[in-house]
Amino acid sequence: MTSSLKMTREEMITFLQQEFPQYVGEVCEVEDQYSLLRLPINDSHLRPGGTVSGPTLMALADVALYVAILSKIGPVALAVTTDFTIHFLNKPRADRAIMAKASLLKLGKRLVIGEVNLYSEGEAESVAHVVATYSIPPR
Question: Which residues form the Thioesterase domain (predicted)?
Answer without folding.
Answer: 49-125
